[in-house]
Amino acid sequence: MTSETFQPQDHLISILVRDEPRVLTRITALFGRRGYNIRSLSVGNTEHPGVSRMTIVVSGDRGVVEQAIKQLEKLHDVVRIIDHSLEKYVDREMVLVKVSLTPETRVEVRQIAEDFRSRIVDVGRHALTFEVTGDEGKITAFIEQMRPFGILETMRTGRVALTRGSNADIPTQVYSGDSAALTPAVEPREEKARGVPNLF
């Protein structure tokens, strides 16, 4: 009887959070305490002042992801969670790769970089640094193509994602009114009855 090695699956989650001190620490600590493996994490501002988007790639089975989402929903800093496995989305990642050069390999390295539509962002006598943007598969393929020439350094940003089409990740049924103010659509008395604190 042969046994197969279990390969954890990656899951892409976006978390909209309020801009408050130690929000990132609280969320990453939640994953750490429960043994969830974060493969990548990206954070940036959104179109709404006071709200940031965290994009997290979590490694594990489906039950791990569902449990993580349930725990995240309990944090008062969290505005909304988007599980991208439940909808169509577009995602991108960026990487900087510094590749060693010799007179013999310079032309070939440049040709491969051109095939991947990468940009040269730094030129040295014995190395070139490339910027590549694309999905995870493209980034990984570029790194593997450059590996035989000698990779000196790499830095990947981690994945970012948005829902495809015109559907907003902060829909009108959750928020209404002036988008700059990000006013909750739920009436304050309804929030109090449900035990949900005001977001802003």
Structural summary, described in words:
The structure is a single chain. The protein has 200 residues and is of the alpha+beta class. It folds into 2 domains: 9-86 and 172-194, Alpha-Beta Plaits; 90-156, ACT-like. Chain A, domain 2 (Alpha-Beta Plaits, 2-Layer Sandwich), CATH 3.30.70.1150. The chain has 5 helices and 11 strands; from the N terminus they run βαββαββαββαββββα. It has helices at residues 23-33, 62-72, 106-115, 136-146, 188-194; strands at residues 9-18, 37-45, 51-60, 78-83, 89-100, 119-123, 127-134, 151-156, 160-163, 175-176, 183-184. The strands form 3 sheets. Strands 5, 6, 7, 8 and 9 form a 5-stranded antiparallel β-sheet that branches. It has a 4-stranded antiparallel β-sheet with strand order 2-3-1-4. It has a two-stranded antiparallel ribbon with strand order 10-11. A hairpin with a 6-residue loop joins strand 10 (175-176) and strand 11 (183-184). It is elongated and about 60 Å long. The termini are far apart. The model is unreliable at 1-6 and 171-200 (pLDDT under 50).
